[in-house]
Amino acid sequence: MRIGILGSGLMGGKLGTIFARAGHDVVFSYARSERKLLRLAREAGLNARHGTPAEAAREADTLLVAVHWSRIGDVLKQAGTLSGKVIVTCSLPMNASDTALVVAHTSSGAEALARKAPRAKVAAAFGTVPSEVLFGVFAARRRRNRPSLLYCGDDAAAKQVAAELIRDVGFEPVDAGPLRMARYSEPFTLLIAQLAYEGDRGPELAYRFEWFGKQIR
Ligand SMILES: NC(=O)c1ccc[n+]([C@@H]2O[C@H](COP(=O)([O-])OP(=O)(O)OC[C@H]3O[C@@H](n4cnc5c(N)ncnc54)[C@H](OP(=O)(O)O)[C@@H]3O)[C@@H](O)[C@H]2O)c1
């Protein structure tokens, strides 16, 4: 897959690195310094490069949106036309102080993003875990009991891409349904963040859903 990273911070930097190490072509973009993007690309290995958001978008079939909510408009504008592209978003609609959701209950960040990029195919994934756990999950990807990761979306192709990337990182994808399910998964992340950052066991936290009883497929 050719993946453009829009937002190369804690989430985008780590996920882009893992995607590249899993064999995808990755372009890191959107940080405040080009040196940081260069370093990320160098450390991620031969499959990674850096570029502008427009270059990342032009050359990719899939884009990871990983910016603070206040930067969504800017990064989409810099990326340019996203017609037909798959967008996987991990961005949460947090206020400036990261203390509360500014979109919730009757909509979600994922749905708001989809409205801002109406020609793209949007899936929400990766936003329900702290960045600190990502490398650990990737390192443990051959274990039998993988942690779960929720994803949702309205477009079947975008969801397939999200599920593939989730597996590549080392999680077991859990299909939560249509994009509006982000109305539930985004507040769930605040609980995960509370456990990760305010608990006494550290932020390397993932979760696992288990179904008991008869498997219906
Ligand atoms: N961190 C987590 O554990 C976590 C977990 C779940 C969901 N999320 C969500 O994922 C999204 C990304 O979070 P994050 O923690 O990865 O954020 P972050 O570390 O702040 O990364 C954001 C990226 O945007 C870049 N950026 C910010 N302002 C910019 C500007 N004016 N021009 C160019 N680049 C700019 C930053 O540049 P620099 O690299 O130069 O700072 C950084 O690369 C957020 O919506 C967050 O709510 C985060």
Automatic annotation (TrEMBL):
Annotated GO MF terms: oxidoreductase activity
Pfam families noted in UniProt: F420_oxidored (PF03807)
Keyword Oxidoreductase recorded: yes
Boundaries of every Pyrroline-5-carboxylate reductase catalytic N-terminal domain copy: 2-91
InterPro entries linked to this entry: NAD(P)-bd_dom_sf, P5C_Rdtase_cat_N, STEAP_metalloreductase
Record key words, sorted: Membrane, Oxidoreductase, Transmembrane
Record's protein name: Transmembrane reductase oxidoreductase
Protein source organism: Eiseniibacteriota bacterium
Taxonomic lineage from the root: Bacteria, Candidatus Eiseniibacteriota
